[in-house]
Amino acid sequence: MAFRCRRWHSAFVSYANAHQSPTYCVQIEQGRYYLAAGLMLMLSSVAFRIGHLAAGATLLAAFPLLLVAARWEWLVFDGVSLRRRGPYAWLKGKLFGARTQLTLAELEFVVTDVVYLPLGGGRYRLRTVFTGADFEVVLLSNAAGYPPLMAAVCAAIDEAKLDLSSLLWRHYGSPAQLLADAKILDDKELTRIPAQLAQSIANHFTLLGDLTAARRYFQEAYERARGNPQLLLEMGYFFHRFAVVDHPRWRLRAGACLRLAARLARQKPHLLERIGEAYCELLDFVRAERCFRRAIELDRSLFRAYIGLAELAFRDGQLARVAYYYDAAAQDVTDPILRCRARREARYYERLSRDDEYLEAEVRRITLLHHIRQMRMVAGYVFFIAWLVVGVAGRLSPDLQDGGLAVMGSSGLAWLSLSVGLRWRRKRVEVSKTIASE
């Protein structure tokens, strides 16, 4: 009887797991907790030195508590919405009224950039930003759970909301077959893998940052599918990343792959749209514009092609053209969130092109934001270096410890004040909805 009950329980659990939508979690906002923990440690040292033992003990006890609380700050995706959970998200929502949840229908864009580590010898991390409806969250690829969450979110939304790097997560984010044994296969066994599977494994290795293994599988896929423009586009993306890790000459190989892909995809508008984005990453804006225009000639409903032309026009300072391209992008797009975003951008850039005083005010605001970001980054680095100096060499020299604590305090307070200023000056001046129709 007990055996039968255990078997029924196992069957019930299996049925529930099979019919339950999976939940994906990634830790976020770790840097804020580490900075706060460092400030608590610094303030406790100051309190002990001036004789306030109770305050020092309280601040010292807060140091491990903040490190533990950092492990509970999550971004959760349940298949329907993105939720921020944790002490910081709760405080931010209660004190500032910030949104802590965003449905997939409200998500506007997913942008994935490459962040190269300082003194990292070409090592990098992927930095993904989810934005939409006063909600923004940043993910780093070194966080546990990043790959499955990225693959799940990118597979559940419209491709027009994804940039090229995020689109690869949509197609190749899930582990391919034979991935566990892919690194140990010899050349003879590698030739038995189908070309499409080799292409999937190569792209998955690229997303995970294992570029050496990815190069091996890209070479095998190219040997058997030389005329595949999709493969050539992905190889161009790969060689652009590989140029930073190995040698800059691989950028020439990336450009050659993209040129051949554009030639083979003359009648494929969606692929030309993505090739144009890849050209933008290589800073080849002339060829990028050609690809975007050719894609629009074939299909006038391509949202990202219009956005690409708008960004190129912005680089040339042609604000009226930027407004025109955003307005054109809003005409045929079916997603209401993207349509609202494009119309909002069209109104903004149209006012910039018409109102010189508004343009000057926005230039000052953007310049100030750029300086604030740079100063905040410097303050963070100074705080970390001073923390290391106090922890390693502080006991050897009291004067060095006092100086390090002073630098930690000033840089930490500077970082906090700059963060407040960044939040204050980040929003644009609201533009009337009637401007675009004047």
Q: Can you describe this structure in just a few lines?
A:
This protein has 18 helices and 7 strands.
Give an overview in words:
- It is a single chain.
- With 438 residues, this protein is of the alpha+beta class.
- It folds into four domains: 23-170, no CATH class; 173-304, Tetratricopeptide repeat domain (Serine Threonine Protein Phosphatase 5, Tetratricopeptide repeat); 305-354, no CATH class; 368-424.
- It is 66% helix and 9% strand.
- It is built from 18 helices and seven strands.
- The strands form two sheets. Strands 1-2-3-4 form a four-stranded antiparallel beta sheet. The chain has a three-stranded antiparallel beta sheet with strand order 5-6-7.
- The longest helix has 38 residues, at 356-393.
- It is globular and about 75 Å long.
- The N and C termini lie far apart (79 Å).
Topology:
Blueprint: H1 2-18, E1 24-27, H2 30-49, H3 53-70, E2 74-77, E3 81-85, H4 87-96, E4 101-103, E5 109-116, E6 124-132, E7 135-140, H5 146-156, H6 164-172, H7 187-190, H8 195-208, H9 211-224, H10 229-245, H11 250-264, H12 269-281, H13 285-298, H14 303-315, H15 319-332, H16 336-354, H17 356-393, H18 398-424
Antiparallel strand pairs: 1-2, 2-3, 3-4, 5-6, 6-7
Helix pairs in contact: 2-3, 2-18, 5-6, 6-8, 8-9, 9-10, 10-11, 10-12, 11-12, 12-13, 13-14, 14-15, 15-16, 16-17, 17-18
Distance between the termini: 79 Å
Which whole number gives the mean pLDDT?
83
Strand order of the largest sheet: 1-2-3-4
Name the poorly predicted regions: 1-19, 433-438
Helix content: 55-70%
Largest sheet: 4 strands, antiparallel
Shape: globular
Number of strands: 7
Helix/strand-derived category reads alpha+beta
Helix count equals 18
Rg, nearest Å: 26 Å
Tell me the series of helices and strands, N- to C-terminal. HEHHEEHEEEEHHHHHHHHHHHHHH
Estimated share of beta-strand residues: 5-15%
How many domains? The number is 4
